[in-house]
Each structure stands twice: as C-alpha cells, then as structure tokens.
Specification:
Layout (H helix, E strand, L loop, with lengths): L2 E7 L2 E7 L3 H21 L4 H61 L11
Antiparallel strand pairs: 1-2
Helix pairs in contact: 1-2
Length: 118
C-alpha cells in the first residue's frame, strides 16, 4: 500500500509517496535534512551544493555499509564452515567412541564394560 507523507527538509516541504511506513519515511527525511543542514552550516554553501554534498556523503555511507555487510557475510560464512567442520569431526569421534566401546566390550567378554569381571 502506498503511503503519502509530507516532510520538511531544510525548511521546505516535500510530498513523498512510497510503500514504506510513514514513520520510516519521516526517519529518512529527518536524516536527509540533518545531512543537508550539516553542509549548509559547515561548508557555507548554497542549497543546491548542500544537496549534492549531502547526497555524496550519504552515498559514501551507503557504499561503506555495503562493504561492511559483505565482510560480515564472509565472516558468517567462515563461522558456518567451521561449525560444519566441527560437526563432522564430532560425528567421526562419536563413531570412533562407539567402535572402541564395542572393541572393549568384546575384550571384556560382552559384559558391556560395567565392571563385572570374573
């Protein structure tokens, strides 16, 4: 469902229509306004230049977030691979314990190694 929201960015009202919730859209508008205000006060530039600089800074943040997310995906894949390897080792060790238990039971005359030697 499309939502209509009017947002004030740097003192100007803008109408947005999007699938996202009004709360989310408002959050985006506040963020953009904050970034533009930073440019307007920090760089002492006009609105158009502030908008371009804010867009460039937001794009920079976006690309850095993509890179960070990709690194996290790689770490998670590594952890999943390690966990899978560990599970395989556990299975191998369980089979080895079972094999050794059977060997011990056979050596003890089949009394399941419960200490009932004669």
């Amino acid at each position: 469902m499309k939502n209509r929201v009017t947002m004030t960015i740097c003192g100007e009202d803008y109408n947005f229509v999007a699938d996202e919730s009004p709360e989310y859209m408002e959050k985006v508008g506040v963020y953009v306004s904050k970034k533009m205000n930073e440019m307007l006060t920090g760089a002492k530039v006009g609105r158009t230049d502030a908008a371009v600089l804010a867009a460039a800074n937001i794009a920079d943040e976006l690309f850095k977030s993509y890179e960070a997310a990709e690194k996290l995906r790689g770490q998670i894949k590594g952890y999943v691979d390690e966990a899978s390897h560990a599970q395989s080792e556990v299975s191998d060790l369980k089979r080895e314990v079972f094999r050794l238990q059977q060997k011990l039971d056979a050596k003890n005359g089949g009394n399941n190694g419960n200490g009932n030697r004669r």
